Amino acid sequence: MTTVTRWWWIRHAPVTCHGGRIYGHDDLAADCSDAALFTGLATALPADAVWVASQLKRTHQTAEAIGAAIRAANGLDPKLPALVIEPGLAEQHFGEWQGLTVEELRARRDGAWHRFWLAPAHEAPPGGESFEQVVARVADTVDRLTDAYRGRDIVAVAHGGSIRAALAMALGIEAERALAFSIDNCSLTRLDHIGTPDPGATHGSWRVTTVNLHPKAPLLH
User: Fold this and answer.
1) CB–CB of 178/167 below 8 Å?
2) What count of other Cβ atoms lies within 10 Å of the Cβ of residue 152?
3) What are the residue ranges of helices labelled H in 10-159?
4) CA-to-CA distance for 76 and 184, rounded, in angstroms?
5) Confidence at 221, pLDDT banded by 50, 70, 90
6) Residue 200: its pLDDT value, please?
7) How wide is the angle at C-alpha 40 spanned by C-alphas 53 and 170, nearest 5°?
């Protein structure tokens, strides 16, 4: 007998107040003004899901906007979904690089440039963490929550970095390769864990169902 735990990953709404600077763990607000994005997500997400988010308010604001759209579609009062707050799903901490522009960072790194990210997956900024470390903490958090909510739907409102990390975990690929995934704001990525119904069982496999699906795409309707 198998049990499927479905993870519905959503990257937070756009952050427009960063002034072109690296923000990572900085707690900036999301722009939730595009109602059509949240209406599209509301039609795709399951009822009676567990909702989780990082500790950063841009994920909470996005969850609130999606929750309002779900309730509006069902004639209910707008209300924030009950959120399980998980710092393990936060964006990469860029340490001393936070607050810099990309050009300032490039100058600080002697002109070094990365095709997809700010630096190679193994490199940790001073006072921060590497993307490889992000993959490890996201995998630990996902394992724990998959065990706690085995057989449920889990809506995770998170970040581009943490969703790429989840893909690295699910596919069993190197962290560097996962940086090639494009994860847009408010896009949907779904990963299904196929395991046993036994609490504490860590074995199982992952199925990648959807990656970076835009909420206005026809498949969501």
Assistant:
1) yes
2) 17
3) 35-44, 57-73, 102-108, 131-148
4) 29
5) very low
6) 63
7) 50
**What 3-state DSSP class applies to 89?**
helix
Beta bridge partners of 5: 193
Structure tokens at 70: 């779900």
Look-up of token digits 């996005």: 62
Which run of H or E residues covers position 189? strand 188-195
> What band does 218 get if pLDDT is binned at 50, 70 and 90?
low
Is 141:166 a contact under the CB 8 Å cutoff? no
Task: List, in order, residues 6 or more apart from 116 with CB less than 8 Å away.
Answer: 179, 180
pTM beyond cutoff 0.85: yes
Q: How far is CA 144 from CA 102, 137, 141, 219, in A?
A: 35, 11, 5, 30
Picking from 169, 106, 171, 100, the residue whose alpha carbon sits closest to that of residue 136 is: 169
- Domains contained in the chain, CATH given: 3-220 (3.40.50.1240)
Which residue, chain included where needed, has tokens 């889990």?
154
Residue 58 scores a pLDDT above 60: yes
Which residues contact residue 151 at a Cβ distance below 8 angstroms, ignoring those fewer than 6 apart? Answer: 3, 4, 5, 197
The rounded distance, in Å, linking the Cα atoms of 17 and 15 is: 6
Can you say how many angstroms the Cα of residue 108 is from the centroid of all Cα atoms in its chain?
28
99: left (phi over 0), alpha (psi -120 to 50) or beta: left
